[in-house]
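thread from #wetlab-drylab

HS: before we spend reagent money on co-crystallization trials with zinc ion, can we at least see a predicted complex? here's what I'd submit
DV: go for it
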Amino acid sequence: MRDLPTALAWVAEGTALCRRAVAGLDEAAYGEPSLLPGWSRKHVVAHLAGNAEAIGNLLRWARTGEPTPMYSSPEQRTADIEAGAKLPGARVTTWFERSARALDGALASMTDEQWRAEVVTAQGRTVPASETAWMRSREVMVHAVDLDTGISFADLPPEFLSALREDILTKRAGTVPRIDGDPAEVTAYLAGRPYKGVTAEDGSPAEWLPPWREL
Ligand code: ZN
């Protein structure tokens, strides 16, 4: 369902959604809260820029065989996001665009053998480098919604939402109650984002789920 060409197409689509979300923001709107607790829209865009560079590190690892972790430390990752959130909006956007272009070039230059090379994610999972395309697509798609400029889960491709539900259910195995609802809303629920009309099997409102930490 989520093969590499599909995941790469989702990276491009999600990046375009993020670009669209920030395009109309003036300085005041850029500094307003996102859907993520404690984060402004600038925090989200700075995180996306840092994430593009971090994924680029994993691709370099796959190309060279030399371990280059996503982030030098969790503290550095946080510090970079905080520093980015203090920049003028135009500079955060420039960082996002530059990092997205560099990542695009790196993704396009990978050989089949390099895609198969194993790398270790910031969560400590050992994965083939091809998994990074899926990781990045999740970031750009879901954070496009988090930017809170009118893009919702219902605007994301149904096949992407289906792959995301499967991924979250696998990783949250056994901790998610049985639920019912519109597929886009169920995906938002599983990702720990605002949702509407998701119910338990008996029709009562779904039990609150803690945020999903992988995004
Ligand atoms: Zn993220």
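DV: Strands lie at 118-120, 126-128, 179-180, 199-200.
HS: ok that's useful, forwarding to the group
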